[in-house]
Amino acid sequence: MSVKFLPCGDTAVVVEFGDRIDRALSDKVLGLDARLRAARLPGVVECVPTFRSLMVHYDPLSTGAEALVAAIRALLAGELSAARARRLWRVPVCYEGELAPDLADVAERTGLTADRVVALHTQTRYHVYMIGFLPGYPYMGDLPPQLALPRRADPRTRVPPGSVSIATTMTAIYPVESPGGWHLIGTTPIKIFDLALSPPALLAPGDAVEFERIDRDAFARIRTESERGAYRLSHGELAV
Questions:
Q1: Using an 8 Å Cβ cutoff, are 201 and 193 in contact?
Q2: How distant is the alpha carbon of residue 173 from its chain centre?
Q3: Rounded to whole angstroms, how far apart are CA atoms 47 and 36?
């Protein structure tokens, strides 16, 4: 397997599998991540999957880059995209009114009706490639090509938590209020990041996500339950 090992300071090594966003590369990244977690190599502190690479943080007092790279090379032997358990989440989203401020604009720019935009968004099963930008922020692909748009020319300074967004080939959910330049086409009433929970992030790299359209009444009910801590989103298991 052709990979690159890139030093990242004196406490991390990046294992790079390619130069593009691709499910096959993601499977290799997540496969190595799983093997490293199972191997419990001395000195490894944390593994951080990205679209095309895995950053391996280590304690330089317990191991060194040379020894770590040699151990990772040994783990890379064989097929990395073997079957593994994946969680499937069905996330409720309301695509109405002020909860979907960019939906009409997205429909106009794509030449679709708003209902068709929602249908395409909800009929796709997404793959969580990585978590980044904000704590718990999931980069999910692959968006139907009919919905592919560049980021907004005028990013917002405040995006509400729970906003469901699209840009380029990705869809995402803002876990907390933050600036953002993606197109907001809906809002979920659930929390996808909560420091009171362990782990605090609901979604993880390798998970699958489907969006379920709900109306305003269901949105209000679920949000109330979620704020009280009385709502827990269940998930299924997939083998891939």
A1: yes
A2: 9
A3: 8
